[in-house]
Amino acid sequence: MIYWDPKLETGIAVIDEDHKTLFGLLNALLRIIDDGEKADDAALAIAALNDYATGHFKREEALMLLCGYPGQDRHERDHNAFRQGMKSLQHLFSINAGMVNLRGVSDFLLNWLQQHIAVSDRAYVPKMQESSALIAKASENLISCTSFDL
Ligand SMILES: [Fe+2]
Ligand SMILES: [Fe+2]
C-alpha cells in the first residue's frame, strides 16, 4: 500500500487529481500482487494504469503547450519513455505473465512516478502559475474529457 504524499502537489487541481488517481491505480495493482497475483486481474490493472497515464500525459502536454512551457520537448520525451516501457511490459505480460516480476515492476513504476512528479512536473509549475487564468479555463474542458481518456 502506498500513500499520496502531499509534498508532491503542484497546486494545479486537474493535475493533482490525475496524480492521485495514478497512485490509486498503482495501489490497485499492489493489492492484486499482495493477494497472490491473478494474471488476468494484474493485466487489467496494468491496462487501467496505462490508459489513465496516457490520458494524464495528454492533459499535461496540452496545458504545457497552452502556457508556452519551454521544457515541453524534454518533458514529452520522459512521458514517451514511460509509454514505451508500459507497452513493453504489456507485451511481455501477454506472452508470459510468469516471467514478469510484478513487484519489481510496481516498485519501478512508483519510483518513476514520484521522481517525475517531484522533478519534471514541478519544473513547469511556475510557468503554469503565470498563466493561471488560462489554465483554469482549459482545465474545465480537460476534466470533461477525462471520461473519454478512461
Ligand atoms: Fe504528471
Ligand atoms: Fe509529466
Task: Catalogue the unreliable spans.
Answer: 146-150
The percentage of residues in β strands lies in: under 5%
- Distinct ligand kinds: fe (ii) ion
DSSP E strands, number: 0
CATH architecture: Up-down Bundle
- CATH topology value: Four Helix Bundle (Hemerythrin (Met), subunit A)
Gyration radius (Cα, Å) is 16 Å
Query: Helix proportion of residues, in percent?
Result: over 70%
**SSE order, one letter for each helix or strand:** HHHHH
Q: How many separate domains make up the residues? A: 1
Q: In DSSP terms, counting alpha (H) and pi (I) runs of 4 or more, how many helices?
A: 5
N-end to C-end Cα span? 23 Å
Mean pLDDT over the full residue set: 91
CATH H-level superfamily title: Hemerythrin-like
CA-based shape: elongated
Q: Largest sheet, if any?
A: none
Q: Structural class from helices and strands?
A: mainly alpha
Q: Strands, helices and their partners?
A:
Blueprint: H1 13-34, H2 39-67, H3 72-95, H4 102-130, H5 132-149
Helix pairs in contact: 1-2, 1-4, 2-3, 2-5
The structure holds fe (ii) ion (2 copies).
Give a quick precis of the structure.
The protein is an all-alpha fold and about 150 residues long. It contains five helices and no strands. The protein has one domain (about 5-150): Four Helix Bundle (Hemerythrin (Met), subunit A) (Up-down Bundle).
